Automatic annotation (TrEMBL):
Keywords: Nucleotidyltransferase, Transferase. InterPro entries: NAD_biosynth-regulator (IPR052735), NadR/Ttd14_AAA_dom (IPR038727), P-loop_NTPase (IPR027417). It comes from the Bacteria. This is Putative nicotinamide-nucleotide adenylyltransferase, NadR type. One of its GO terms (molecular function) is nucleotidyltransferase activity.
Amino acid sequence: MGDLSAPVLVCIIGAECTGKTVLAQQLAAQFGGVVVPEGLRHWCEEHGRTPLATEQVALMQTQIYKENKALALTENARAAIIFCDTAALLTAVYSQHYFADSSLLGAAQAHHQRYALTLWLQPDLPWVADGLQRDGVAVQAAVHGLLAQQLASQPWVFRISGSGQARLHAARAALLQALGPQ
């Protein structure tokens, strides 16, 4: 992809407790990028609960809105990289897992095409409880499996594993491979 003349979106996705937020922040610091925070985390903190089936569409739309806002703010910035701490696709997968509702997958898959690349975090970090939105290793494994199915048809997906500096190094290498030196 090489020389970037417009901002690019990088998706950082994975099941719960795979280090998405930490990695997004680390990469933004290294590459001078912007982080689009995870909408679900903010929603759970604001409402004091996890969302219902009827609230999944709004969650997905909020995540997309946050990405669009970041794109608009960096529109004139040369080589700006926007690191999305999760994606609409994860909301659709959660809806599939928790509510047996696959209706959001088509729209989420279509939206996912706009990312320059996807960093798919593997569930190889120790699972840690974190408020309302983490249900355990069994859910992590199930969501990881559903993500595998959804990401199989997406271009530019890089599996990121390891911990600490090894994880960061793998993500950095994937970015440089896909986007070229910055």
